[in-house]
Amino acid sequence: MLNPGAVRLPDGTTFLLCRVEDRRGLSSLWAARSADGISDWQVDSEPALLLNSQHHTEEAWGVEDPRIAWLEEIEKYAVTYTAYSPAGPAVSLALTPDFQTFERVGMVLLPDNKDAALLPRRINGRWQLFHRPNAGLSTDIWLAESPDLRHWGGFRRVLAARQGAWWDACRIGLGPPPVETDRGWLMLYHGVRQTAAGCLYRVGLALLDSEDPSRVLKRGDEWVFGPEADYERQGDVGSVVFPCGTTIGPDGDALNVYYGAADTCIGLATARISELLAWLDRHSSAPERVAL
User: Which domains does the chain have, with CATH numbers?
Assistant: First the structure.
């Protein structure tokens, strides 16, 4: 199990939607639940979301790396995930009120695209979707908007991969759905550096404007979380930490970050939102807005 989307259910249960790869190499999404978000995980005996290549050819090679957002307006959870096929990775969307039944909206962004997550509310009347298209020489974080969750446009680049020796110079991609704070949207993103031993995945922070999430207020110069433990450095893909889901504690500040480790297992890291914002104040570049 790896790369889980996460949400805290109304009864306080932590719910993970995890990527599970079978022995063919094809992935589906499985549900796991815990009362405290740490221990005694109960995993369903059947997948919650199985690839459906008969009706969705974009899923022929599996469904991967979900992110979950609760959309209060329609009283449903939105699950954005990577649909994988011979055409490459694409962004797909499913809606569910309970993780028992799913309405597949289907592919919403064409290949080659992934690392997508919705904001939980409309901004200026439109839903906002972060995503990571592969644009050839540069793989950056972009934002799209939609009036109905089905038709997407208004594309603009939000955060670009840096160049040279930076920790996030090769490519970047969104981690979990950004967390709304009183100062803006707190974004956790992964940055990849190509080394002589292969790719090295670490996690950094950025802060986006509350009412214009394409506007970057702060971006951390340094990474804040990287592979150190053996289970993060050794596995199917070594030296990878890849967060896809967070939950917030009852105090509104404690943050649980669920992540894939070395593409082999799931780890949990903890932080406080207030401390992450304070770290950004001390370690961020000048405010930037990336314009095309």
Answer: 2-283 (2.115.10.20)
Distance CA 52, CA 192 (A): 31
**Contacts with 161 (C-beta within 8 Å, 6 or more apart), sequence order:** 138, 139, 140, 168, 169, 170, 171, 172, 191
Q: How many CA atoms lie within 13 A of 222 on its CB side?
A: 8
At 273, which helix (H) or strand (E)? helix 273-283
HSE, side-chain direction, 13 A CA sphere, residue 152:
24
Position 291 scores a pLDDT of 38
How many residues in total does the chain contain?
Answer: 292
For residue 43, list its beta bridge partners. 32
For residue 216 the two structure tokens come to 């970057």
Distance, in Å, from the CA atom of 208 to the CA atom of 280, rounded to the nearest integer, reads 12
> Taking the chain (292 residues) in consecutive chunks of 10 residues, what is each chunk's mean pLDDT?
97 98 96 98 96 92 98 98 97 97 96 97 98 85 98 97 92 97 98 88 98 97 97 96 98 98 97 98 70 38
Contact in structure between 93 and 79 (CB atoms under 8 Å): yes
**What local confidence, expressed as pLDDT, does residue 135 receive?**
76
Distance of CA 74 to the CA centre of its chain: 21
CA distance 257 to 271: 8
127 in Cβ contact with 149 (< 8 Å): yes
* Residue located via tokens 């409309």: 122
Q: Please, where are the H alpha helices in 80-224?
A: none
